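Recall that a protein's primary structure is simply its ordered list of amino acids. Everything else, from secondary elements to tertiary packing, is in principle encoded there. The following example makes that idea concrete.
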Amino acid sequence: MLDILVIAPHPDDEAIGCTAVMLQAIEQKQRVGVVVLVNQLEGNLLQPVLMGRSMKLHAFVILIALTVGTVLGGIIGAVLAVPITAKVPRSTR
């Protein structure tokens, strides 16, 4: 059983907010667990696959579209990236 369980929605959250507490607990021979995997699987695997199925695009295309949209247009670019990417192949048919 764990003495301390850190549930971090993003990989950097536990490094920023909990490092001192985790190190102190480890020094006192307490068991520390960090849950990050669930959010990473959801954000990097499940969401692109489901979004790809609903938009009829490959999951890799979704990831590339989100990356390019975020780099070029910030948050608005990320929000608009997938619908624009889904529309392009349909308009060229």
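The mean pLDDT is 76. DSSP finds four helices and two strands in the chain.
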